[in-house]
Automatic annotation (TrEMBL):
InterPro entries: AAA+_ATPase, ABC_AA/LPS_Transport, ABC_transporter-like_ATP-bd, BCA_ABC_TP_C, P-loop_NTPase. It comes from the Bacteria. Signal peptide: none annotated. This is ABC transporter ATP-binding protein. Keywords: ATP-binding, Nucleotide-binding, Transport. It holds the Pfam family BCA_ABC_TP_C. GO terms for molecular function: ATP binding. Residues 7-248 form the ABC transporter domain. SMART domains: AAA.
Length: 248
């Protein structure tokens, strides 16, 4: 394996009772890049994410992360190694404040058992780092609002902040801009770019202008197989890709 590769799959395959949802996928994600997984509905993107994070066992093939074989690893071990999917920890607590949500994430990351009733004094030891993370995602001014009162776009930013509390090397984002208005899309896109300054990001994304603006490499899946790969200019001109989207 080339050593700038952070994640690599060989022949990754998932069958659901004879239906092949992911078929012989050889994916290579380079360290430090923003890599998109796109494709029409039913292409196998979510299944791929579930296989990579080991939420689902694969039927065949191998997965290597940072040079380690994780084909049969437990999801918690994958996260511990540094591959974290945003919703794994996001589950925001709506009635806790934005800051408290990040404190809880930090407390978990440090291995402390999750406990709402720990003294304020103990929890406040996480305040400095929590504030840093909130500033990083542009939520510094909203730290004391209950999470439930955030706009949808800001809730997604909070999810990213809680995920960053785990200090992932590879961050998996599942449709980070889904359901957002233009302003929130811009804000999240800027955040992803900033987060990617010192990490690798693999994202499933439907918004092609986000993909075009952010992603260095795009893997197009269709019917469980890789149809095309490359930068946006290359894949968007590929007649097979155009056909897969038109025919979807
Ligand atoms: P995408 O995320 O690209 O829309 P999915 O990975 O969700 O695609 O699904 C790929 C295919 O696998 C679809 O045809 C879907 O119906 C099928 N599929 C996904 N999960 C299951 C499952 N648990 N059991 C059976 N079929 C599934």
């Amino acid at each position: 394996m080339v050593n700038d590769t952070i994640l690599e799959t060989q022949g990754l395959t998932k069958e659901f009772r004879g239906f092949v949802a992911v078929k012989g996928v050889n994916l290579r994600v380079r360290r430090g890049t923003i890599h998109a997984l796109i494709g029409p509905n039913g292409a196998g993107k979510t299944t791929c994410f579930n296989l990579l994070t080991r939420f689902l066992p694969s039927s065949r093939g191998s997965i290597s992360f940072k040079g380690q074989d994780i084909t049969r690893a437990r999801p918690a071990d994958v996260a511990r190694l540094g591959m974290v999917r945003s919703f794994q920890i996001s589950a925001t607590f709506p009635h806790l404040s934005v800051l408290e949500n990040v404190r809880v994430a930090l407390q978990r990351e440090r291995g402390a058992s999750f406990d709402f009733w720990r003294s304020e004094q103990v929890l406040s030891t996480y305040d400095a780092r929590a504030s840093e993370l909130l500033d990083a995602v542009g939520l510094g001014a909203h730290a004391h609002l209950p999470a439930v009162e955030l706009s949808y776009g800001r809730k997604r930013a909070l999810e990213i902040a809680t995920t960053l509390a785990l200090d992932p090397e590879l961050l998996l984002l599942d449709e980070p801009t889904a359901g957002m208005g233009h302003e929130d899309v811009e804000r999240i896109a800027a955040l992803i770019q900033q987060v990617a300054a010192n990490r690798t990001v693999l994202m499933v994304e439907h918004n092609l202008s986000v993909v075009a603006n952010l992603c260095h490499t795009i893997t197009v899946l269709a019917r469980g197989e890789i149809l095309a790969e490359g930068d946006y200019a290359t894949v968007s001109k590929n007649p097979d890709v155009v056909q897969a989207y038109m025919g979807a």
